[in-house]
Amino acid sequence: MKLWSLKNKYILVVDDFAGMRTMLRNMLLPYRPEHIAEAASGEEALKAIQDYDFDIILCDYNLGPGKDGQQILEEIKERELLPYSSIYIMTTAENTSEMVMGAVEYSPDDYLSKPFTNEVLISRLKKLLKRKSSLKKISVATRQRDYESAIIFCDDQLSGTPNNRFELLKIKTELLLRINDYDAVEKLVKPILEEREIPWALLYLGQTYYYREQYDDAKFIFEGLIEDYPNYLFAHDWLAKLHRTNQNYAEAQNILEKAAIKSPKAIKRQQILAEVSFENEDYDTSEKSYKRVTRTGKNSYYLSPDDYSGLAEVYLKKEMVSDALNIISDMRKEFSDADPLKNMKSHINEAFLYNDLQRKKETNDRIDKIMTIFLEDPGTVTSVDSIELAKLCYTHNRNDDGNKFIQYAIKNNHDNQETIDEIISTLTNTGFSNKDINALLKSRDEVIEINNHGVKLATTGKIAESISLFVEAATAMPENHVINLNTAQSLIMHMNKSGATEELMGETKKYLDKVKFTGKPSEKYKILTTSWQNLSKMLNQEPVGLKGS
Predict the structure, then answer these.
(1) What is the DSSP letter of 31?
(2) What pLDDT sits at residue 103?
(3) How many domains is the chain partitioned into structurally?
(4) For residue 416, is it left (φ>0), alpha (ψ between -120 and 50) or beta?
(5) Where are the alpha helices (DSSP H) in 179-282?
(6) What is the domain extent for residue 34?
(7) What is the pLDDT of residues 393-413, one digit of tens each?
(8) 3-state class (DSSP) for residue 88
(9) Does 211 reside within a domain?
(10) Are 544 and 502 in contact (CB under 8 A)?
(11) Which of 108, 132, 391, 483 is the most core-located residue (most Cβ within 10 A)?
């Protein structure tokens, strides 16, 4: 009889106590895992998880200063660093309701209360690996955003009698929601619910109704879920979202407050509660929620300059100007060493807050700072923010700066008529003439010209020149999906001719990952992703950022 083992499994053990890491390692070593890595903090764990896809992650809840186990889990799920096939087990010596509810919300595969025995750990791993072993192909396809192939892989397994049938059905439903195939979601979950009432199936059916704007049907499902499963807090979130969509801010606030009491560590919910209560003009609750976010979310991936500026806006509404200024200062300190996007966002929010305070000098100082960073690194500003910044610049008679932001938004969205219409409306309301508006809109022609020239270079054999042109264009227009796809295509053409390298494969993946879409990806994206995958196999390496196939 073949003995059970952890052969070929890569494991990460995360615990701030060295003795515990050693104990877990000794528990696992007899089962011959391929490799056991260790991390003593949340930061070390995230670095390891970014560098490699682990089959099993054993993570303590309390890791001392820095991120805790729940915050690691929420971040790797948000950033899609935890494949369906991987196992995440939370270990903890705590059993407070706050911890339990917080952990359950982010759905680790299991959690173990310390102390636990070798027998308990191995028993849990056996069950989880048996359930997860068939999900590798689905994980790889999902990571590549090839959701239709992932759905086919689900169907292949569901055609038999899998022991993880409901997990496969749940994954398939999630994938169908990603590609906005709401008819297929309804067709899938209704028979499941006839067989057994499962909260996730009801929730996804409710989401389907919500996206179809069948709000009464969605409301009926979400309210029923809350009544029957009061601790299934996702139903609270969706019912609040529905009420907010219908501008029933008081109802939305009431629902979120009840959920926040049960799980106060859920930062995203606290952020939404702060926003909704502000919309409901309940500034005391908004202040309380923003304070909780900025205090308890210090190490959360979700913490944003918007939380600080939101609190400052509350203080302005309450005519607490000195408190608003203190929060502006706190925001600057908090994000001074943050990643470039969050650092820039803090400067942007600061500029708007000073503008609200009618402090012209400070507003212009912030715009100067924003322009300096923007001209050096355009990718730190989103198209949405660039339009708002343009409006701010025009208000302060900085038309040249405003035009730079408008042209940036146009170039990033040259084929997105909805955004172009918004830009035209902004310029019209600002007092621009049709002649001036058309002059700015010529930025679209520049993008088309650059793109056509790059394509011509590539198709006439001048691939190196094409790559150089497209990389420069993608740096200047980081959100332009046409430019990003053609940059990736030129790199793939070069590798097809001259051979793939790890560096070029990583660069190509970077441009593919920049392409944003809702629903099904474009045919060109799918073709390029397949080409990238084929090159990866030819390179005789596993896909960059992926393990297994």
Answers:
(1) G
(2) 67
(3) 2
(4) beta
(5) 182-195, 199-211, 215-228, 233-245, 249-262, 267-279
(6) 10-133
(7) 999 999 999 999 999 999 999
(8) strand
(9) no
(10) yes
(11) 483
